[in-house]
Structure formats: structure tokens, C-alpha cells
Amino acid sequence: MSKAVVAYFSAEGTTELVAKNLARQAGLDVFEIEPVEKYTPSDINWKNPLARCNKEKIGKKDVPIKNKLENFEQFDTVFIGFPIWYYGAPNIIQTFVKDYDWTGKKIALFATSGGSEMGKTAEKLLPFFGGKGEIVAAKLFRGSVTKEDLKNWAEEVSGE
Fold first, then answer.
1. Residues 105, 17, 67, 42: is their CA dihedral positive or negative?
2. How many domains, in total, are found in the chain?
3. Within a 13 Å sphere around the CA of 118, how many CA atoms are in the beta-carbon half?
4. Residue 123 sits in which domain range?
């Protein structure tokens, strides 16, 4: 039987809510991707050119991660969730992806956003997987997503 996990980063709680509902509805393990230094509201104020999120994105900086997903090798499918920042995944997701061997893994990306679309997020992240693993899905969820929608999507991705 295949085993899956939901790994997510959430700056304001929106992605966390979707990730935990997805995990609960599909009976999956859940893992929070946490930065060593938590983001404050001023850190994610993209309208301020000196905000941390802007400096990270423009400088293409890795974001140190506080924790590690234990027993990563046991998972066949990894759902990775994040908010959309600058029409893509926040740099912490790139850092997370680079930390693991994705050989043979099915990868399902999901994002939350108040206004942006998923766009080319999957294409932009693909190089960070090192040519390993397969992105099988990429979906944007709005705040109105139902638990049933999440369960159905997880089943579709997992093929169960």
C-alpha cells in the first residue's frame, strides 16, 4: 500500500488550514515546513521593497528550515503546500525540496492565494527536484475549498 504525506509552509495560516484538512480528509500524515526564523507580518509585506520576502526572492536565497521530515523514504507520494508569492512558491519550498531525494516519488503541489493563480509554479520548482520524482498534479485552492473537494483531489492524485 502506498504511503503519502502532506508537507506545507504557511505564513498566515491559510495554507495550514487547507493542508490539515487535506491530511485529515485523506487520512495522511502531516508535516509543517517551518523556517528557523518565523515570518512576521512586516516580513511578508511584499509592498515594502525592503521586506524579508522581497530580499529572499530577489536574492534567490535559501531559507533555513527548522525541522526535517523524518523517514522521508517511506513516502511514495508527497503533497507540498504553500502560499503563492511572486507567482510561484516561496523560497523555503525550494530549500525544502533540495533537502531530499525524490527518486520514485509522486509529487502533488497545492497552493493558496488571495488573487494569484498557480501559473508556472510547477515548472519553476521542477529544477529543484534534481530531475527526480514526478510532479503529477498542481492545484490552487481558494478559501472556499470544501473538505470533500480535498478528499477527492487526494484520491485522484494517489490513484486510490
1. positive
2. 1
3. 14
4. 4-158
- Quick one: which of 29, 41, 26 has its CA closest to 156? 26
SS3 state at 4:
strand
CA dihedral (33, 35, 38, 44) in degrees, to 10, reads -90
Q: What contacts 2, CB < 8 A, 6 or more positions away?
A: 76, 77, 158, 160
Summarize pLDDT for 30-78 with one digit per residue, the tens: 999 999 999 888 888 777 877 888 788 777 888 999 999 999 999 999 9
Cell numbers at 59, concatenated? 536574492
Q: Where residue 23 sits, what CATH number does that domain have? A: 3.40.50.360
- Whose cell is 497545492? That residue is 110
Half-sphere exposure of 81 (CA within 13 A, CB side): 28
CA of residue 29 relative to chain centroid, distance: 14
What integer pLDDT is reported at residue 56 of this predicted model?
83
Q: Which three cell numbers stand for residue 71?
A: 523517514
Residue with cell string 508556472: 120
